[in-house]
Amino acid sequence: MTATTSPPLVEDEASRRHNRLASSVRELRTRAGGADMARVLLTVGGILMPLGIVLILLGWSGVSHTTDTFEQTPYVVSGGLLGLALVVAGGFCYFGYWQTKVMRAVRRDAADVRSMRESLKHIEALLAANPALTGEPASPKRKAPR
Description:
mainly alpha
């Protein structure tokens, strides 16, 4: 019985797959701008929330100086609703910033756990290689014949 194997075909397929993977990896974007995006979210949230509060206060001030409903409506729309929208948008920006910080902490902790796990495996391998350190009894010594 003869077996026909064609290693060149397997190597060609592996080479094609490797080249396709390499070209796909080159097209990936990096996350180098991640720190900048968190800073942008913090800054935008820090601007929008106080601006929204100021607009709400200005709208309230305009509404409080008149008793006519038709004069109060523009203040409610421009000051109250726009201010509320800015406060909510700023809150979402702060929330995005907070989530970014949490994810960085989780990733950092996961990397620390992986590092500790590798260290423990290394220590375990060293202990397994040296039976004197594992607490196992040593082989009994034979007394020399007299």
